[in-house]
Design a protein that fits this description.
Helices cover 12% and strands 34% of the residues. By secondary structure, it is mainly β. The protein has one domain (2-88): Acid Proteases (Cathepsin D, subunit A, domain 1). The longest helix is centred in the N-terminal third of the chain and has 6 residues, at 14-19. The strands form two sheets. It has a five-stranded mixed β-sheet. A two-stranded antiparallel ribbon has the order 3-4. It has helices at residues 14-19, 83-88, and strands at 2-3, 11-13, 34-35, 42-43, 47-56, 61-71, 79-81. The protein starts with a strand and ends in an 8-residue tail after the last helix.
Length: 96
């Protein structure tokens, strides 16, 4: 999972969709393109899906529903958590 405070959307990659045993039939329509993942190219997503995401340890955790845009290509990471998730989890990324 990559946390990217510069990303305006949360992205789940195609290979992660199948790893989670989810099918394209479970996706909702998402009719906008997005830029910035593939250098110089726009991407047309497969759709969007809402998944339960949990951060923390067994003793101290927080769980939220996250709306992921599903990219129509495989990624190095399973997903990218952008500003929408950071806001939900009230997380502050620290960059060096």
């Amino acid at each position: 999972m990559l946390v990217d405070g510069g990303s305006s959307i949360d992205i789940l990659f195609r290979n992660s969709l199948s790893a989670l045993k989810l099918t394209p039939a479970q996706l909702k329509l998402y009719d906008a393109q997005f830029w910035g993942v593939l250098p110089g190219q726009s991407s047309v997503p497969l759709g969007q899906i809402t998944l339960l995401v949990q951060f923390g340890t067994p003793d101290h955790f927080h769980t939220e529903f996250v709306n992921f845009v599903v990219a129509d290509f495989d990624g190095t990471y399973h997903a990218i958590l952008g500003r929408p998730s950071l806001t939900k989890f009230m997380a502050v990324p620290h960059y060096s």
